[in-house]
Structures are given as structure tokens and as C-alpha cells.
Amino acid sequence: MTLSGTITLEVDTYVAGDRILVELALCNNRETPSRIPTEAWMFQTQLTVHADGGCVFLPVRDILTQPDDEHDDELRRLSLQYRHRLEFAIGRTCSADSDDPGPVTRPHHRRPHHRRPHHLDPHLRNPRTEARPDDRVLTDMLALADADPATLAGGLLPIADGYGAWLDEQATQAATLPAHLRAVADDALSDAHLVHTQLADGIYYLLDNDDALTCFRFMNRVMADQRTHSEVVRLRAEDDTLTVAAE
User: Fold this and answer.
1) Burial class of residue 147, CB neighbours in 10 A (0-12, 13-18, 19+)
2) What are the extents of the domains in the chain?
3) Is the pTM of this model over 0.70?
4) Are strands 49-50 and 19-28 parallel, antiparallel or unpaired?
5) Rounded-to-5 percentages of helix, strand, coil across the chain
6) φ and ψ at 21, to 5 degrees?
7) pLDDT by residue (tens digit) across 24-83?
8) Which carries the bigger pLDDT value, residue 16 or residue 174?
9) Which of 82, 45, 47, 49 has the alpha carbon at shortest distance from 63?
């Protein structure tokens, strides 16, 4: 970094147990009138902190190694769910970033070799949830509106079966967690197994109850019609000469 004039970098360190907290501040010490002229501002400044290739930066808090003293069940579950999303620095009027802000699932990735603040708003890339493809699952609303019980059984039960198989995978992962996290994982799995049971029971109820099946078919027909009308509105907004038949 090259500093010039009244631009200074202030560094403070604090010893906290087996780690050192480092506070950095990039300061503009230029004296200006109360209305600061734009030529005296600092624009899009950035600091990059290296450790000479050494992976020495520790997370602010790592739930895998530090027992959670949080009493709120929801927050404890969120800490478990996002245990691989670590925060290594806290910014003031900026956010901290790195070249690879993805999940840190490997031990050596939990100690990056450099950090940098970002002058824009805090942001984080989090992968979206995507359903596993299964050709057996029936999701077309028009098809669901006309399906007989046998077709519905073949198209809906794989959803419950797939969810149950996924829960078995999560139980295997939970068994490898540190001891202080297993109770949280077991509670979450217990609730999830209850949902799985309700999901399967709901499908069987739908297949065996004529009134429930009639309502289910009507619901899917209405939602399909609503989606069709929304698409018509979108296309007409782009080209108002289109007729409903053409759309």
C-alpha cells in the first residue's frame, strides 16, 4: 500500500487468549471546511491483508470448535445449518470479503491466508436450494388436476420417499458432528421426521378420500389457470396486439 499526504493507516492490536485481534483504520486526516469538497474525499478505498501465505486468520466464531451458549432454539439451529459460513472480519461502514466466499467445509479452509474489506454493502453468495430431479414425481398442475389415484400415488409418494432418504443422509452426517452440536441436530431431525410422517399421511389421505381428492384437483386446476392468465398478461404487456387465442 502507498500512503501519501494526510492519508494514514492506523493499526491496533489486542491480545485475547490464544489469538490477536487486529483493528485497521484507513484515515483521511486532511483538514477541510465544514462542507468537504469532493476532491478531498477518498473514493472506493480497499485494504487487503496478507499473512505471507500462511493460513492464520481465525473466524470470529466457529461453532464446530466453540460450544454455543445461545438459548434460542431457532438461533442454535441456524448456527448449525450455517456452520460452514464463517465470519473472519467485521467491517465498519464496509464489509469483509475474500476471493472464495463459499462454504468452508474443509479444516484448512477455515483459516484463509488473506482478507479484504469491501466498500459496498455486505454481501454473501449462498447457493440456492434446488430439488433433486426425479422423473417419477408429478408436478404438472394440469396433470395433477386430472390424475386418478393410481397416477397420483406414483407421482407423489416418491416425494415422501425421497425426503425420508435425505433425512437418513442427514442423520449419518449428524453422527459425525462434535458432541456439543449433536443435541441440536437430533432435535432438528426429530422435527423433520414428524414432517415426513405428516407428508406421507397426507398423501395417503388424499388417495383414500374422495372429497380430499376433489378439492386437490380443483386447487390444481385453479392454480394452473392463474399461472396461464399471468403469462397472458406478461405477453400482452410486451405486445398488445396479441389475442388471447394467439397467446
Assistant:
1) buried
2) 7-118, 141-238
3) yes
4) unpaired
5) 45, 10, 45
6) -90, 130
7) 888 888 777 777 777 777 777 777 787 777 777 888 888 888 777 778 889 889 989 888
8) 174
9) 82
